[in-house]
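Renewal narrative, Specific Aim 1. Our central claim is that a sequence can be written position by position from structural information alone. The example that follows is taken directly from our test logs and has not been curated for this report. It begins with the structure tokens describing the chain, in the order in which they were read.
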């Protein structure tokens, strides 16, 4: 059980392994901050965010892991999850090249993606070079992500306190425990993000097994009176930090505290794993909620969708 007031957590993997699963941080680029006024936030008395956590948030690269195809070079990183065929999990990021080489880099990255026939997201950050890369991407047929072209990179020190709200009938379960729970969490995500992708039970089971094999990944399924209501993931990289992602709540359950309860549950998991804080990308819906909970903005990402390989 996790100490989240008002929430029952049934989780086979609630206690994170304390093995030092390392990300591969690189030197953080200068960031554009957009901190919210303290009067609008909880946790105003918590300790300051450490530079180590800020660096991790701004420079984390997905390391090799089960279920991933990674092509990492000094000029870019291509990250693919063939069993999750949507842009975002499939991406080109950390792009660093001269303007005269931008088109060649686009061709090179697209050649890596093409055999997998996946849509990808080109992700720009404050250190992206050339600084007008967006112009090159749009000239090659890419477009800003309609779901939100920019997100905030946000962090929360592990000492923060988030009270789990009292949500009648709420339980939070381990969605990796069995195929039924995993598929229910996947269905929550598809509804919450209005995805038209058809569920693939075989691909879902491969993804579940890969997450179990990774050892540092957790997936939560929130139910209300037994009905799937929310889903949320976390990847643990002790001692430096934990990345929370995939936080989604079905429309009929929004505004009841389900999202907040899942953040509180993951904060408790990160604390138990011995990490220094949480990292998240906050979009137009989640960003304001996370800001009120005490998360601070330390960077940004911009997204461009590329369907050339599909």
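The sequence written for that structure reads:
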């Amino acid at each position: 059980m996790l100490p989240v007031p008002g929430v029952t957590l049934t989780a086979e993997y609630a206690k994170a392994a304390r093995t030092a699963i390392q990300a591969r941080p690189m030197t953080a680029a200068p960031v554009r901050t957009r901190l919210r006024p303290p009067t609008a936030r909880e946790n105003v008395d918590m300790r300051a965010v450490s530079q180590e956590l800020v660096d991790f948030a701004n420079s984390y690269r997905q390391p090799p892991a089960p279920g991933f195809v990674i092509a990492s070079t000094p000029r870019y990183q291509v990250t693919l999850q063939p069993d999750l065929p949507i842009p975002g999990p499939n991406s080109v990021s950390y792009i660093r090249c001269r303007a005269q080489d931008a088109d060649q880099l686009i061709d090179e990255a697209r050649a890596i993606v093409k055999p997998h026939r996946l849509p990808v997201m080109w992700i720009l950050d404050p250190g992206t070079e050339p600084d007008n890369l967006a112009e090159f991407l749009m000239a090659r047929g890419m477009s800003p992500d309609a779901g939100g072209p920019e997100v905030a990179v946000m962090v929360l020190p592990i000492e923060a306190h988030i009270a789990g709200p009292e949500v009648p009938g709420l339980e939070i379960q381990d969605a990796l425990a069995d195929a039924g729970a995993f598929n229910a969490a996947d269905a929550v995500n598809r509804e919450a993000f209005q995805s038209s992708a058809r569920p693939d039970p075989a691909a879902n089971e491969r993804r579940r097994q890969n997450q179990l094999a990774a050892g540092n990944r957790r997936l939560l399924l929130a139910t209300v009176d037994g009905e799937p209501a929310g889903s949320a993931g976390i990847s643990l990289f002790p001692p430096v930090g934990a990345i929370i992602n995939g936080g989604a709540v079905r429309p009929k359950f929004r505004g009841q505290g389900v999202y907040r309860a899942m953040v509180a549950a993951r904060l408790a998991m990160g604390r138990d794993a011995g990490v220094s804080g949480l990292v998240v990308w906050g979009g137009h819906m989640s960003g304001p909620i996370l800001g009120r909970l005490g998360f601070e903005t330390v960077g940004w990402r911009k997204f461009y969708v590329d369907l050339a390989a599909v």
